[in-house]
Write a structure and sequence with these properties.
Elements (H helix, E strand, L loop, with lengths): L1 E4 L1 H9 L5 E4 L3 H6 L6 E2 L10 H11 L4 E4 L6 H10 L5 E4 L2 H5 L3 E5 L7 E8 L4 E8 L4 E5 L6 H9 L3 E6 L11 H8 L3 E4 L12 E3 L4 E4 L2 E7 L8 E5 L3 E5 L11 H4 L4 H14 L9 E4 L21 E2 H7 L7 H10 L8 H8 L8 H8 L8
Parallel strand pairs: 1-5, 2-3, 2-4, 4-5, 9-10, 10-11, 11-12, 16-17
Antiparallel strand pairs: 6-7, 7-8, 8-9, 13-14, 14-15, 15-16, 17-18
């Protein structure tokens, strides 16, 4: 019998270490580029059905366990499941919406703070590794949102569940790996949208209120200081929350730093690397060791594994620990620039189109097209 399950239910099965076989029916190149953890690949064409070789491949993968099938949108995994049912498999489930829905899966994680007034929620986009934040004050029941993804309801619900209303929306920078939801969220709730003032150099068409280095946004008694930290992009802002938490965007991650050639290009990547070195050593590393680093991304591999931490757990690091453990932070300027410019990873798919959308120079109105542009894990770390 074939049943449908949601992406959320698949995540629950994985997190509970249930014994099942996940089979991805997409073409091999799509599968290799990005898939759910522990999935196997059996490319399936509904017009051709299961060949004897494919059936033998499935039998070897399944080994008596229940089967869960997934594809891009459910178009091939569903007939694949019925084909298995006809071949005697009586426990087959299909992930409704496939990898499209998997890419929209979120967890909301409380971040511990030293202040009874300060509320911080880390909004994790599981499949892509995007991290956004709700930062607010219990006393005034207000919050700002930082780096919203286009599933803006996730941030509205996170704020509502914390008893907070959204009063401002901030982006750390013009994102290259996913479509920002910040301008739309600000418009939906009728509040100001902010970018760093250097965004004026990037032909941003969205209306925004610019923030300069040292500007402070107040949420009740909570102070959020904007720190200009160019490198990954020219307009990058980090946000220092009440002197204890630093939202670093794509400047500093818990396992790397931001790459620099997505905006600056291959020929000028060294200039971006020099700017990033200065931002790290003249701004971020001047902060106290106990500063909690909250990045804009975590690393998710092409096979769906977290490089650090686990879904639903806080993704954070103490600055002093990063200073001691992250070798990139110990390099001199010349070695740092050489490392970033000579070992750049593969660029995020569709990044030029995504940047054009996030500056307001292109639009995407179709949900399917937007999902297609964002498919795959983020790839913004050096």
């Amino acid at each position: 019998m074939v049943k449908n399950i949601t992406a959320e239910q698949l995540a629950e099965k994985i997190d509970a270490d249930e014994q099942f076989t996940l089979i991805d029916t997409r073409p091999e190149d799509s599968f290799e580029a990005w898939h759910v953890r522990d999935a196997g690949n059996v490319t399936y064409d509904p017009d051709e059905g299961l060949s004897e070789d494919q059936l033998n491949e499935v039998n070897a993968l399944v080994d008596g366990r229940p089967v869960v099938a997934i594809c891009g949108k459910g178009l091939t995994s569903t007939p694949f499941a019925f084909d298995l049912d006809e071949h005697g498999y009586d426990d087959v489930e299909v992930v409704t919406g496939g990898m499209e829905e998997w890419s929209k899966l979120y967890e909301v994680v409380p971040i511990e703070t030293t202040s009874d007034d300060l509320v911080v929620r880390q909004v994790q986009r599981r499949a892509k590794g995007c991290l956004g934040y709700v930062v607010g004050s219990k006393a005034v029941e207000e919050a700002v949102v930082v780096d919203s993804t286009r599933q803006t309801d996730q941030f509205k619900v996170a704020a509502q569940d914390a008893g907070l209303s959204i009063t401002r929306v901030l982006d750390t920078h013009v994102h290259a790996d996913h479509i920002s939801g910040s301008p739309a969220l600000a418009d939906e709730v009728g509040v100001p949208y902010h970018l760093g003032d250097a965004a004026s150099e990037r032909d941003v068409e969205y209306e925004y209120e610019p923030l300069s280095d040292g500007d402070v946004i107040e949420v009740g008694d909570i102070e959020i200081e904007a720190l200009h930290t160019p490198g990954h992009t020219s307009e990058m802002m980090n946000y220092l929350v009440d002197g204890e938490l630093l939202l670093t965007g794509d400047t500093l991650f818990v396992d790397s730093v931001g790459r620099t050639e997505l905006q600056f290009g291959e020929d000028d990547a060294s200039r971006g690397a020099e700017l990033l070195y200065d931002s790290l050593h003249e701004t971020i590393l001047d902060l106290p060791d106990d500063t909690k680093i909250l990045p804009g991304h975590l690393s998710v591999t092409s096979d769906g594994r977290y490089e650090n931490g686990s879904p639903g757990d806080p993704l954070e690091a103490r600055l002093g620990d990063l200073r001691d453990e992250l070798d990139l932070l110990g390099l001199n300027r010349e070695a740092f620039v050489e490392r970033l410019t000579e070992n750049a990873p593969e660029k995020p798919p569709n990044y030029e189109t995504v940047i054009a959308i996030n500056t307001g120079n292109e639009t995407v109105d179709d949900e399917g097209e937007a999902t297609e542009l964002e498919l795959g894990p983020n790839n913004c770390a050096a």
